[in-house]
């Protein structure tokens, strides 16, 4: 709530109230303000430099919001002097390790460590960086808070060292969702990050995000244990949409068991059990097929205890 002394506002305490938007610079005109707590809301954007005028302030808590950008130097001077100052758990607010901030001889400032990659206030908050595998491709998606800043996102492959493989430009303030597709990839594990760079050279890294790209078609792994006496396990992954049929045959080509029939989730590992019920000791063939493609097979041996 709001507390006053002699008709002057001294306390503004509104944590966890669902507040959104940006911090109003007009708060700096409340010279009598001693306690400001707007934590746990959905407030975005930078901390106004005018807040340095709140010279009566003793406690400042703007934690757990979505604030971004470099903390203005004059506000950092104020924050270093406050009894309590907390700007932690925000989307991207930071304190540069440039000489004027280091000279304050306070680290952290308002629960924020000094950082070498904090160079400007025109960077944006990035959220929901995801990597979605396809057939020999991976699509990266991410979202940002609305911004009029001129930002370029550089997509980087982080293995073995970060290497730029593409870029995406923010063309308008209304543009908040982005995609970039990395194509012609072999099966394997990949890791990507995005580096946003502002017009003045400031940058911030989001990620990395790691994803497994499986081979196209149907990939079946070796049955284990093999030989088996009670039950065995077969693991498979499909990199192509389609109906899959996996069955157990005897050496005469007769179908003994249907192990799997259907369309599994794409790129997700599926485990099926091969039961020994009704089987005679001997050698069998596990045959796997997706749609009308050629089948793959492997031999397994059932032995009685």
Protein described:
With about 300 residues, the chain is mainly β. The protein is about 5% helix and about 45% strand. It folds into 3 domains: about 110 residues, Ribonuclease Inhibitor (Leucine-rich repeat, LRR (right-handed beta-alpha superhelix)), CATH 3.80.10; about 90 residues, Immunoglobulins (Immunoglobulin-like), CATH 2.60.40.10; about 80 residues, Sandwich (Immunoglobulin-like), CATH 2.60.40.2550. It has 2 helices and 24 strands. A 5-stranded mixed β-sheet has the order 1-2-4-6-8, with no helix packed on it. A 5-stranded parallel β-sheet has the order 3-5-7-9-10, with no helix packed on it. Strand 23 and strand 24 form a beta hairpin. The longest helix is centred in the first third of the chain and has 9 residues. The radius of gyration is 29 Å and the shape is elongated.
């Amino acid at each position: 709530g709001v507390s006053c002394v002699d008709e002057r506002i001294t306390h503004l305490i509104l944590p966890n109230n669902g507040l959104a938007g940006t911090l109003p610079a007009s708060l700096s005109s409340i010279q009598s303000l001693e306690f400001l707590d707007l934590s746990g809301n959905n407030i975005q954007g930078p901390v106004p430099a005018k807040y340095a005028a709140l010279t009566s302030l003793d406690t400042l808590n703007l934690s757990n919001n979505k604030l971004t950008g470099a903390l203005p130097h004059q506000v950092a001077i104020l924050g270093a002097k406050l009894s309590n100052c907390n700007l932690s758990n925000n989307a991207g607010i930071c304190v540069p390790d440039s000489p004027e901030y280091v000279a304050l001889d306070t680290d952290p400032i308002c629960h924020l460590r000094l950082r070498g990659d904090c160079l400007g206030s025109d960077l944006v908050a990035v959220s929901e960086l995801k990597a979605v595998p396809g057939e020999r491709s991976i699509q990266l998606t991410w979202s940002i808070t609305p911004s009029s800043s001129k930002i370029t996102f550089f997509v980087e492959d982080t293995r073995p060292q970060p290497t730029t493989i593409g870029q995406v430009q923010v063309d308008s303030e209304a543009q908040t969702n982005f995609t970039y597709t990395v194509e012609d990839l072999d099966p394997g594990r990949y890791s990507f990050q995005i580096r946003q760079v502002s017009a003045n050279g400031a940058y911030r890294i989001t990620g990395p995000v790691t994803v497994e790209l499986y081979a196209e078609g149907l990939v079946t792994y070796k049955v284990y244990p093999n030989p088996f006496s009670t039950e065995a396990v077969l693991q498979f992954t499909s990199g192509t949409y389609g109906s899959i049929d996996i069955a157990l045959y005897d050496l005469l080509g007769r179908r003994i068991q249907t192990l799997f029939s259907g369309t599994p989730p794409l790129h997700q590992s599926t485990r099926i059990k091969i039961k020994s019920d009704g089987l005679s000791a001997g050698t069998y063939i596990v045959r796997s097929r997706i749609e009308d493609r050629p089948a793959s097979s492997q031999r397994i041996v059932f032995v009685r205890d």
